[in-house]
Write a structure and sequence with these properties.
The chain is of the alpha/beta class. It is built from 8 helices and 5 strands; from the N terminus they run E-H-E-H-E-H-H-E-E-H-H-H-H. 58% of the residues lie in helices and 12% in strands.
């Protein structure tokens, strides 16, 4: 079976998610797992895709950065897939781990992607520091208490985290974060 995985970092990136879904359909993916969470968050749908995959299947992602956050993360994913005898295909690279060359190229490009991400984060940190000095950086806007309370109320009424996120038009990771913060405060 050909299994697709699509991810964008935020729920605002609808066009990016739709483009990935189109590419995965063209690649003849029979089942597609999708999510809109940062790569540093818990990627529930990626975990589900890895769990779902069976011997002889192929996991397909449109781009390397949609799948892995670092070389070590990529290697962990590849190891999981290899243990299950599942291939990995990255569409924009024409890469397929079912070939020795594909495995080598994926590892090399994973290193380049990690380097690129680290450089971008460094530039971002420099920009934030400069903005703070200039008094222009305000930081992330805190979540309203009303939103927090609504998440808690919906959770207490038995709604799933995914349904809460959809209902409130927020990311699943935000729901998890709110509920985890409340558990810490209760302990």
């Amino acid at each position: 079976m050909i299994i697709g995985y699509a991810r964008t970092s935020t729920v605002d990136q609808i066009a990016g998610l739709e483009a990935q879904l189109r590419e995965l359909e063209i690649a003849q993916c029979e089942k597609i797992f999708r999510e809109q969470v940062s790569s540093i968050s818990i990627r529930i749908q990626l975990e589900a895709a890895l769990e779902f995959a069976r011997e002889g299947d192929v996991l397909v992602a449109t781009k390397l950065d949609r799948l892995a956050r670092s070389v070590s993360d990529l290697m962990t994913i590849i190891k999981t897939l290899e243990q299950k005898t599942v291939g990995l295909r990255i569409l924009n690279l024409g890469m397929d781990t079912q070939t020795p060359t594909g495995k080598l190229m994926l590892t090399v490009l994973g290193g380049v992607a990690q380097f690129e991400r680290e450089m971008m984060l460094e530039r971002q940190r420099e920009g934030v520091a400069k903005a703070k000095v200039a008094g222009k950086y305000k930081g992330r806007k805190p979540l309203a208490n009303e939103l927090r309370q609504e998440v808690v109320t919906l959770a207490e009424n038995g709604k799933t985290k995914r349904n809460i996120a959809k209902h409130l038009s927020i990311g699943e990771a935000t729901v998890y974060r709110i509920l985890a913060t409340l558990k810490k405060n209760d302990a």
